Amino acid sequence: MRPVRLQANALYAAWLIALASTLGALFVGEVMGRAPCVLCWYQRIAMFPLALILGVACYRSETSIRHYVLPIAVAGCLIALWHSLLFAGVIAESVQPCTRNGPSCAGEEQTLFGFLPLPFLSLAAFAAIILSLTVPFRKDHT
C-alpha cells in the first residue's frame, strides 16, 4: 500500500473515531440525560473540535493537519488519563472533581452498558486518534 493512501486511511480513521466519540458524548449527555463532570467537559472541549477539523482535513485530503490536531488530542488524552486514574481509584479521592451535589463519574450511572466506564472510553478514543495520526506517518525505509 502506498504511503499516501495509508496516510489518507489513517486520517479517515482518526476522523471517524473523533466523530463517533463526539456523537457518543452528545448521546450520553442529551439523550440519556447524564450530566458531565468537570473533567468530562474538558475532554469534550478537546474532542468536539477534532471531529470538525479532521472532517475538513479528510474532505480536503490534507494529511499535514496532524501537526495541528495532535496537540489537542494529546491534551485530551492527558485529561482522560487523569480522569481514568481518578475513576479507578489510583489517585486519591480528595482531588476528585466530581461533587456530591453535581454530576459524578463514580458509580454505575457513568458507565456505558453497565460495564464500560466513560473515562476509559475517552482515554481509548484519544489514544486511538493519536496512534492513527502518528504511526502511519512514519517515513518508510524500504
Commentary on this structure:
The protein is built from 4 helices and 2 strands. The chain is mainly α and 142 residues long. It has a single domain (3-136), classed as DsbB-like (Bromodomain-like), CATH 1.20.1550. Strands 1-2 form a two-stranded antiparallel sheet. Helix 1 packs antiparallel against helix 4, helix 2 (38-60) runs antiparallel to helix 3 (66-88) and helix 3 runs antiparallel to helix 4 (118-134). The radius of gyration is 16 Å and the shape is globular. The model has no long low-confidence stretch (mean pLDDT 81).
Report a brief summary of the structure.
The chain is mainly α and 142 residues long. It is built from 4 helices and 2 strands.
